[in-house]
Every structure is written in C-alpha cells, then in structure tokens.
Amino acid sequence: MYPLIAHTVGVEEHWESPMKINMEEATARQTYNLLIGLVAPRPIAWVTSMNEEGGLNAAPFSAYNYLCTDPPIIGIGVTDRPTGGFVPKDTARNIRRTGEFVVNVVTEDLIRQMNICATDFPAEFNELEMAGLSTAPSQVVKVPRIEQVHAALECREYTTMEIGRSRIILGRVVAIYVEDKFVDPAGPYVLAEELHAIGRMNGLGSYVKTRESFLTVPRISYEEWKQGKR
Question: How does pLDDT run across 158-177, given as a tens digit for each residue?
C-alpha cells in the first residue's frame, strides 16, 4: 500500500500512480473526502424534524438512500457534532426523541435554499426562516414538510444505530407526497425526468443536475441475452 498523503506546512506529497490507500491508516477527514467523492452521485435528504417543544429544524444529508420496500425503509447517516464527544446533531436528537421526520426531495429550483439550511446557525435561528421557506402539514406525522418542495417522504423512526461518531437512522415511510404533475398514475411512476432532483458529488460544493441527462438502458432478460441482445 502507498503511504497516506502527508500534510506539512504548505507542502503536500504527491501520490504515486495508481493510488492505493490503506483505510486503516486514514484520518477521519481523508476517509470522508475520498468516500463522498467516489460514492456519487448521491440523493439528498432534506430533513425536517421537530423537538419536544415543537421547534423545527431543517438540514440536508447526502448519506442517504432507500434500503428496502417491504417494509418501505430509508436510511440516513448523521455524524455527531464536530465539537468533540458524542454529541448528536439536532436532526438525530429530534428523531430519537420524537420518532418522526420528513425527507423533503431536493430539486434544482430549491438548491440555494437547501444550501442555506446546511449553514451551522446558532440554536436560536430557524433554518427555514433564514432560507425564506414555509411549511405545510404532513398527512400522517406531526412534523411538517417544506411547502415549496414538490415531493416528500413522511417517516417514523424504525431504529437508530450508533456506529463510531455517526448515527445511522432507519425510517419507515408512512406517507408520500408528490405533486400531481410529477406522477404517472398508471404505475404510479414518478416522472423523474420532469422532477429534476439533484445529487451530491463531493465535499467541494459540487452537485449534479438530472435535467436533460437521463439514459434509458432497459434490463436484459436471460432469454434476450442468450439470443445475443446485449
């Protein structure tokens, strides 16, 4: 294995090619930088949650995906606060205490507002107000969705696992909101090529659009493969 990159005062050693990294020797920051650049693009969970007093929090997380459909479970990775110790972020704490949250789908037209909600505001600030956003009641859970989003998943906590300095939150989807214009009722299918969701790429502020970028590659059956349709 090649040694991990070493940082001195303004000096950075160069990697030999190809790069091979022993992750057992990597720092937390190096691991983060590499994983988020390679596990990409990633969907973004723009999570609204509520504390016991009814105070709202909104924060985006790109360690996120759906994990199974029966039952419908999504997973979100939330790291602890970087201040030392094992102190959960507001989102993880709220979900653990109230058991509910909403995943708001991030689309191209809302990327600026989502980014504002990623700001580490002091506790007395409301991220939604800072981003000029409002809320709308959810169908099942007490936590509201962001009114301006075009789709949202209402969730109840299934379980939370603490692994190192992260909390992996599994949520059971109990209701879904999608604006009619983004749904083909025949499926129903989400018209993803019209919704224009965005994805996270790396830790350098890079995102990817889905507008005019869809590829259609139908799955090949075994019979088709035998016939040479590859």
Answer: 999 999 989 999 999 999 99
